[in-house]
Amino acid sequence: MDKATILLVDDEDDLLSLWTLRLENAGYRVVTARSGEEAMAVFSASPPQLVITDLRMEKMNGLNLYEAIRKVNTSIPVLIITAHGSIPEAVDATQKGVFAFLTKPIDGKILLAEIERALRAASSGGAAMAATWRKGIISRSAIMEQLLDKVRLVARSNASVLIRGQSGTGKELLAKALHRASDRAEKPFVPVNCSAIPEALLESELFGHAKGSFSGADRAYEGLFRAADNGTLFLDEIGDMPLPLQVKLLRVLQEKQVRPVGDTVPIDVNVRIISATHQNLEQRVAENRFREDLYYRLNVVTLEVPPLQDRREDIPMLVEHFLSLFNEQNDRTIVGFSPEAMDALLEAPWPGNIRQLQNVVEQAAALSTTDLIPVNLISSALREETVKILSFDEARFEFGQRYLVRLLQMTGGNVARAARIAERNRTDFYKILNRHHISPHLFKNER
Known about the structure:
globular
């Protein structure tokens, strides 16, 4: 199995080199930073599975770095190392949530044991699960990595999960990932779109029916709850479920039994419920269009899928993925998009999110007569005015580092192109990158 990526932070070059070598020899992938500020830039560019940091560093010390990391990711474990260890510091660090506090000189075996313990605690097996449980989720953005960390954590329990997000953001894909990361992974994952099934049929579809229970019921039907027994039932667009059926669903969730239409004998079911909606359920509860008791039963854990406009750095990867699928399905050999076409894709507002992006890519590819898709086909497919990415001066200063990271992720570390989008000449742009402790090479050929 693949080993995890570790971010190693120390302002002493000799120690940084020594521990990098030892960790790489142990099979880990190591990225390094020589200050807390540089560490946050590296972290934002590509979140690791574990952070190991020295405590005593200038400006941003180890605890300050830990607190900065926690603002963007609450689940990645952090180990703090210092030559100046003390009981008060250790107590303070562990109370704040630091996974371990180790004092120099460190025994290599102890450090490796702590790393393995931290990775097991964080992900029940660490990064090696990524190839299976999150299959199909195309992303490298920090906001999606944070969401996936939450998915991995909540997957350990049987708590009901409500996935929120705009249409087209990939809520069902996230539900499947949660199912695959759980101990129900080998059991069925059964999706049902509550808005796509007529109200008269939805009860029978969910709970089943007995033979002869209504006109046309010429045979018994077990229903989707029983089909998902010991697995996961995904109730998409739960906000559209009719009120009378909400009452029956609540009863099933409380009693863990279903009663097929036309039958009097309840049947035990063991099903984990994941529901999803793009609607404001709180408002629907206030309008008496959604039961408050059902809302709280479903909303034990909430996961919010970000819109595509908040994860634009994922667009190049998504575009490449969709174009590859198109080529495979249509026996085409389209190479990619012109720089102007890619800029248009990066700058579009994407109200339809990933689903809209896929449609645009497929439409432009289908109409392209060349191996490189031109910008006019993208503009035509979008059918609306694109929105320019903010220049650097327009971005709020405190989000400058995140802004620059996103630019370099979108351009694959191409400084000239990133500078053009930020409306700066290359010389000025390099100075801005240096002020924000960002190295363009971190983003080269990132996948």
